[in-house]
Design a protein that fits this description.
EC 6.3.1.2, Ubiquitin-like (UB roll), 7 helices, nine-stranded mixed beta sheet, 14 strands, ligase, Creatine Kinase, Chain A, domain 2
Length: 341
Amino acid sequence: MTKCKLEYIWLDGYQPTQSLRSKTKVVSDFSGKVEDAPVWCFDGSSTEQAPGGSSDCLLKPVFVCEDPARLGTGFLVMCEVMTPDGEAHRTNGRATIIDDDNDFWFGFEQEYTIWDSETNRPIGFPAEGFPAPQGPYYCSVGSGKAVGREIVEEHFELCLECGLNVEGINAEVMMGQWEYQIFSKGAKNAGDQIWVSRYLLERVAEKYGMSINWEPKPVAGDWNGSGMHANFSNETLRSCGSQETYEAICQAFEPRIKEHIDVYGADNHQRLTGLHETQEIDKFSYGVSDRGASIRIPIGTVEAGWKGWLEDRRPASNADPYMVASAIINTVKSAKLPAGV
């Protein structure tokens, strides 16, 4: 009999930005399959998800991978939060996604800032004043430019080790700011993987005495903010071969600015200013290869004969990928497509 350690991970009820929570359950001879992970419960009164007099909330496993810190006997179990009667909890963004056939594919570009707990500033920033202006840090190498690489590399390896589909990493425009990309066929799975990867990143930073800052504008002034660009496609976008169809889908987003911004992350107005490769928060635009637009049409999509994907550049680094995917799917499905598509 093998004792296995299952780390149950869920999102709490804190607003405007939910946090990750986790606790360990020991079971015997776990198969590694999500259907064999039992439903568990937790004290919702301690996570802003239930009153003290009726505090039980349920954890419904939806995604399982190996826990790289407990190889052989450990697993990470991403969960949806449910009410005691088995209904989706009001804080359960995953349950709002309508993509049961995995028609939608998502690639999230998750930016973040490694935060020095002692200086309360990004790693690499001096205790007083500022480093040299932006320019040398993006995709950089070398002391004084690429700062915190040991944390980034360790996180990268852990994600690959446990089977997350991380497709790349790079240093970002601000010192101490980095990015990784995760892709999945299926919106729910993409969200699951982003949340598990965030959990792993928090755990690595914890080991080094650092923290992860997910805020969209961690440093005020002439510094880039942090986003979670959402690259998305469905069968129509992947195969239509029609500029008219792409434009119809992009245009469906314009009357829904508020619906998207409402779930694209708290304090995103500090980042979406029209500067630093962003469109203003209350405006909408799209364009080929335009990183200052709300939605960028990648040049690769055009070169492939209008077959590919779109990139919504507005989601902030602290946004819930479940809610981002849900909003995008609803809008794409509402588009009035040309006849015959």
